[in-house]
Specification:
The protein is of the alpha+beta class and 136 residues long. 32% of the residues lie in helices and 10% in strands. It has helices spanning 7-17, 61-71, 78-81, 109-112, 122-135, and strands at residues 39-42, 46-50, 57-58, 99-101.
Length: 136
Amino acid sequence: MWMLTDLQKQNEVAMTELGLLIPTNQIYNPDGIALKDAVVHFGGGCTGEVISAEGLVLTNHHCGYSQIAAHSTLEDNILENGFYARNRSEERINPSLSVTFIKRIEEVTDQALRGVKPSMSAEKRQEKIHENLERI
């Protein structure tokens, strides 16, 4: 796994040797526009990609399955038959669905483990980590 924050200093040469054709700062750049600005956290557990200036997002079928199922009826089973909106007025709204954009990625391990000791029980370690993460 290549951490986005480490691409340039640790992996750029290897990625170029494997065929990467763009500079790594076009993949992840915390101070500018990069591919990371098009990747979203979709619906709480998946990823998606913004593919239009109007915010059209693509994701895997299983990520949107429950939303698709909610729009399906016996008469209009879009799970089986598919669906295509020819214009905005035909789009199906998903009010409980959201996407989250990555603004930046930070290393927080040291902050999360502050005050955690090997002698603590697993439960106490978890409590301390949770307490630390709430402060970050």
